[in-house]
Amino acid sequence: MHNSSSGAGQASLRLAASIEGLTNRAAGWLLNSGIQEPSGGVARYYRSDTQEFRAVSTEITGYAVSFLVYLHRSTGNAACLEAAGRAGRYLTRVAWNPGLRTMPFECRGQGELAYFFDLGIITRGLLSLWRATHEQEFLDTAAGCALCMETDFRGPSGHHPVLALPGKHPLEGDGGWSRHPGCYQAKAAMAWLEVAEAGAAGDRYRELYDQALDRHLATHASFLDQGQGQERVMDRLHAYSYFLEALLPRAGVPRYAQALRDGIGRVERLLREIRPVFERSDVYAQLLRIRLLAATAGAVPLDLERAGEEATALAAFQLEDADPRVAGGFSFGRRAGVLTPFVNPVSTSFAVQALRMWAEHLSGRFHLEIRDLI
């Protein structure tokens, strides 16, 4: 049992009691802040110091679709499903290029790029919307994205991370982890598994997912060592957590369960070492979600004290402000204890789901299908 007499235990119980208010504030931010444009597309983030929204991103819109569907299912708020539908139709009718049969990172015209990882996130978002609405266009575009991932990004030893459009030529890496192949790509491969489960592809998609897991299992241990400086390592903790999330559907397999145990220990240690300098809210959220799902699968015992500490720390990233462009969203992170000015839809999505999962665990009601992990 969780020791409710401890400070962390009391904070966790207070958080569980306030989770609906926290959720409603976050939903209000996503619906009313302007982060979602009238087109349905969702901006990468709002920058409060310069009072500007960044450009719409197809990846972030895909994440928002998943989150809005999750909010609708969790709260019954019909406005969330309506907003999810607008975001989904932006992806299927505006962003999807039927001639190239792919989707760019941003719909800006010239010099477009397409990312393997982004297409995986978009596929999973569209599948979540299809499951909620049964509208065929969402399944069809999800299947198109999955096929593009399989065929256009195929490389000699895995999948290229980024292609230049319209020629679909692989680009060389530029130093950032998202431009290089790596274990984080395994989360995108979850899209293949889910397309197969939806009946939109054969067993080869399950095989592609399992092949991706095994390929990245062989190399993941060195991923965090490639970051130069503490801030870069914190960024890589976010990406590395994607790899751990991708292991969850196979958590009952001993080699994957061992990787989850080792990975959780590695992330929690580095997060605590680096956070006085820089901490990301999404890393807290990812770690907490992985802990809960890995424990539910019987792969890794749940460390209640650490999980409670992470939940309390995560909730403190939600912003209170008179400005509706800020109020209720979650900050991207802190540097030297000071919140950054980036109000981030992905940070908000991950945080709300993680905190709801934690509150459900404390009340004995926790259940989440891995396909619904944002």
Description:
The longest helix is centred in the C-terminal third of the chain and has 21 residues, at 254-274. It is built from 13 helices and eleven strands. A hairpin with a 2-residue loop joins strand 9 and strand 10. By secondary structure, the protein is mainly alpha-helical. 49% of the residues are buried. It has a single domain (13-372), classed as Alpha/alpha barrel (Glycosyltransferase). Helix 4 (78-95) packs across helix 5. The protein has a three-stranded antiparallel beta sheet with strand order 2-1-11. Strands 3-6-7 form a three-stranded antiparallel beta sheet. The chain has a three-stranded antiparallel beta sheet with strand order 8-9-10.
What are the SSEs and their pairings?
Elements: H1 7-17, H2 19-32, E1 46-47, E2 52-53, H3 58-75, H4 78-95, E3 113-115, H5 116-133, H6 136-151, E4 154-155, E5 158-159, E6 162-164, E7 169-170, H7 185-197, H8 203-217, H9 230-247, H10 254-274, E8 278-280, H11 281-296, H12 304-315, E9 333-335, E10 338-339, E11 342-343, H13 345-362
Antiparallel strand pairs: 1-2, 1-11, 3-6, 4-5, 6-7, 8-9, 9-10
Q: Which features characterize this protein?
A:
7% strand, mainly alpha, disordered N terminus, 3-stranded antiparallel beta sheet, 374 residues, Glycosyltransferase, 13 helices
CATH architectural designation: Alpha/alpha barrel
Unreliable stretches: 1-5
Q: Major sheet: size, sense and barrel closure? A: 3 strands, antiparallel
Helix content percent band: 55-70%
CATH C-level: Mainly Alpha
Q: Per the principal axes of the C-alpha atoms, what is the gross shape?
A: globular
Mean pLDDT: 93
Question: What is the spatial order of strands in the main beta sheet?
Answer: 2-1-11
Overall tally of domains = 1
Number of strands: 11
Span between termini: 28 Å
Radius of gyration: 19 Å
